[in-house]
Amino acid sequence: MLTGYSAFSDVELIADYSLASNFYENDTNHPIPDKDNNGAQSSITVNHIGDAGNINVEVNISHTYTGDLILELHSPTGEKHILQKKSGGGTDDIAKVYSIDMTGIEAQGDWILNVIDTVKNDIGTIEHWSITFL
């Protein structure tokens, strides 16, 4: 609640103000299947109505060989954006923010992070991810 007073007319102004959420997250662990083309899917339901515009996607993934991974972001209307594709070599884990222009894409609905492990012998987990509409 926001309250204000006029210095000249002794009138009290009262209004409700709420800031719509622009941050959504999923912190449920999702194991990434080893060498499985379907990958691991984790979803976030967004109630932000309108154009997605510019977004930040933060991911935290534990994995013993990040060069095996493909990270895809799927919008509620089916568009796919590749966040990362087999980069990082033998390094462990991904903790990164990706800035993406999703102008023209509807924000409301289920967004899906799909992580595909393309090679056998290394395992991992989607630990947390989030979307921020800027």
TrEMBL record:
One of the Pfam families matching this protein, by short name: P_proprotein
Keyword Hydrolase listed: yes
Keyword Hydrolase annotated: yes
P/Homo B domain span: 18-134
Superkingdom per UniProt: Bacteria
Keywords tagged on the record: Hydrolase, Protease
Protein name: Proprotein convertase P-domain-containing protein
Species, as recorded: Shewanella surugensis
